[in-house]
Structures are given as structure tokens and as C-alpha cells.
Amino acid sequence: MPRFKLIIAYDGKPFVGWQRQDNGLGVQEVIEGAIEAFSGEKVACYCAGRTDAGVHAYGQVAHFDLPGDWKHSRVRDALNAKIRPQPISIIAVEVVDENFHARFSATERHYEYHILNRRSPPALELGRVWWVPSTLDTSSMRDAAKMLQGKHDFSSFRAAGCQAQSPIKTLDELTVKKVGDCLIITARARSFLYHQVRNIVGTLSLVGLGKWTQENVIDALEACDRTRAGPTAPPEGLFLVGARY
Amino acid sequence: MPRFKLIIAYDGKPFVGWQRQDNGLGVQEVIEGAIEAFSGEKVACYCAGRTDAGVHAYGQVAHFDLPGDWKHSRVRDALNAKIRPQPISIIAVEVVDENFHARFSATERHYEYHILNRRSPPALELGRVWWVPSTLDTSSMRDAAKMLQGKHDFSSFRAAGCQAQSPIKTLDELTVKKVGDCLIITARARSFLYHQVRNIVGTLSLVGLGKWTQENVIDALEACDRTRAGPTAPPEGLFLVGARY
């Protein structure tokens, strides 16, 4: 049966997250509904990164199997037609090998976290940034981020309910750059713990505000205890940029 | 009496435009209401570019006079506090000379028009772009734009109801660049006719789609007749970037 790979962008605001849930609409539910609407088939759609409520995606990757002989461009156009008016867009569709799995074959997930760091509130950026009105010291955040790069036990940055077997992860990149009024924190790893990026960003914000030193960050990491690290940054600043295979 | 200059960003979507109107909420009304809410004064606020319903601003400029001895940073913070939760942000406030006039002193207005040019609909860009799914030829649009630069009688690009005394305007810049899936059309001039940028973009889109040649654009310009040029592009792709003094 042909397997289709999707690249998907969405505004996370109206959704309870990627996964189907009882308390609201999931992105998965919209896409599976759209597949059924054009093909008549009930199929399951698997993704690379199960984003939380309010988290956005530029390049979520997903796959599903569909019997029949559908052209990839026809699948893309039919899905987009059925998805409207939800703010989800199927950017690209291709037919892939049956060994491809959006979740298990991924070798890297790439996230960005956007902080609007200025006295004035967001206008055009509303719902797409974490607004921090107090000045953040980018340079000390950059130094703290460097210390979290690499392979560590990230238990201190792991939310309750995390389904990962091990708290040991390798952050291939954790960098902070300033673009205008915006701080962009880039995180890349084969896989992440539940809320790991948001918990890291919340911790880095304490450093940026001058409340925490680099030492505090190292202590928090070494404690392997969630209560020792910083708060969870809000979901609206987080974007799943893409996944590699 | 002190005169305050504002730099304002807004998402145009919920507003009937800059100006106060009976059929909905204007940006001007929100700001004048916020001034009254913190100072108790009923004042008039004048802007550089009276944007239409749905048009956005990164850097609208406005001014108003306020009796008393208000510090500029206090005015900024008080306005932002009273404006919430509307998607309008007062980015900067300064005290200016009483000869400064946001509308009459401006020597340049700078607009950008964003077209999302891909088969897949907007998701995160929704309400911030004109979505054109058919492929646009950027190079021929760029050439056509060059021909509209400079001083011309722009009657063919002037909407009914325009209050300008003369249809002769000088476009200091009209350029087209491609950034990813997005075409960004930049227009700079001392002043513009009513709907001039959107009418130019609508005409350039005909060139991009291959429906019009460069000749057709010159003919339309020379006809000095609105019915001879292309359609009006939708408001949601237009951004007032700033004004110079």
C-alpha cells in the first residue's frame, strides 16, 4: 500500500496539539478527517514531533498509508481543500518507501523558540512569541546555552508524563541569536523529552534576566530534578521547524 | 503644549482601518480612547498613512498634543496598558517640536506588499499575505515595476474617493524581490493615491501570471483611466513599514 510523507505547517493556536484528544481539536484529527473526506478511507497519520497545545509548526513531518493509486499532487491539493478553513497547510507530499516512519526514522528534530524582548507588547507577533518586557542579556544566555549542548541527563528539564525511556539526550545545537527585538533560540536533537525545549528556554530566561548565573544552570542540570530548573516557557513561542531522516 | 510622536505597529485584521468610522473600530479610535483613559484628555491623533481596513503597520507614525508634563516613557507604557487586548503596540514615543506633523511633515511613506506564491495555502501567514497559488514570473514583474518607478500621472491606479489634489506622484522605489515562497513588493514615495499600492500590485500580478505584457502596463499607465489597469490586490498583504521626516 503506498505510503505518503507530508510536510505540514500550522498555527498551533486553535488546537489542543498534534494528538487527537477529547478536550478539543487536534491537528492529527483535522488531517485524518481530510484524508477520509477525499478518499473515504479511515487511516492513522503519524508525525515526527507531537507538538503541544499552542505550539506551531513550519515543517512538521507525518506519514500515512492509503490504498489506491493517488498521485502525490492530487493528495496535497485534496487535503488542503478539505482542511480549509483551519490554519493548517500541507506544504508538500511525496510517496515514500514502506520502511519510512515519520516518528521512528527521524534522525533529528529542529525547533525554534521566539522571545519578543522589548518594553512594548506584540502586535503583529501576537500568539507567535513569548513577550518578555524586561531586558534579557543575550550574551549570558548564549554562554549558558553552550553548557547545555551535548549529551546529558536532562531529568531537570523533563515534564511529568514524559514517555521517553531515558532522560539522557544529546542536544546537537542549542544557540541563541538576536534578530531585531526578537531572541531566537534554536534547538536540534535526535529526540527531545516532554517540554524539554520550553523548560530549557524558561531556565535560560532566568539567566538573561540576571536572576541566575551559569553556575545555577550547571547545578540545575546536575540535580536531575525538575523542581531545580526554571519555569516552562509558554507554548506560543515554540515552532517545530522540521525533521531530518 | 507638548506634542508626542508615536511609532505604532498593528495587525489590521480587526479594524476598519486607521480612521474613526461608524461601521466598526478604527485604530485611531483605540489610541484616542487610550489617551483619554490615562490622561482624562480628549485629543485628536493624526497619522502618516491612513491605512484601509485590514491593512497592517510595522511603523505607522502619529502625533497628538497633550497638556501637562508627561514623561515619554510613561505615555508609551500607559497607552500600551490601556490598548490591551487590541493588537496595537506603541513601539516608541518621543516629544517633538510643535511644527512636526505626522501627516504633513512626512517626506516619504514606505509600504511592503506580501504575496505568498505557492500551491499550498497560508497557515502561519494567514491574514498577512495575498495567496496566489499559480506561479508568478518574478522577473517580468520586476521589469514591469521598473517602468512604474519615477514621476507619472497615476490616474489608472487611483481609486474612486481619492482626496489627493493631483494624480501625479513620484514612486521613488517600486521593486519586487523573492524570499522563499513569498514575493515582497516595496513601494516608497512622498505620498500615494488612494489604493495606489494595491492597484499596482494587482496589475503586476497580471504580468506575473503571463496575462499581461510590459506593453499592457505602459498602455494602462498612459490611459489615465482606472478601468484600464488591473484589479485591486486584497488589503491583508499590505504593510505600512514606516515614514520619514
Index terms:
alpha+beta, 10-stranded mixed sheet, 2 domains, homodimer, 24% helix, Alpha-Beta Plaits
What can you tell me about this protein's structure?
Chain A is of the alpha+beta class and 245 residues long. Chain A has 2 domains: 3-96, Pseudouridine synthase I, catalytic domain, N-terminal subdomain (Alpha-Beta Plaits), CATH 3.30.70; 108-244, Alpha-Beta Plaits (2-Layer Sandwich). Helices cover 24% and strands 29% of the residues of chain A. Chain A is built from 5 helices and 10 strands. In chain A, strands 1, 2, 3, 4, 5, 6, 7, 8, 9 and 10 form a 10-stranded mixed β-sheet that branches. In chain A, helix 3 (138-148) runs parallel beside helix 5 (214-223). The first copy, chain A, starts with a strand and ends with a strand. The mean pLDDT of chain A is 97. At the A-B interface, helix 2 and strand 4 of A face helix 2 and strand 4 of B.
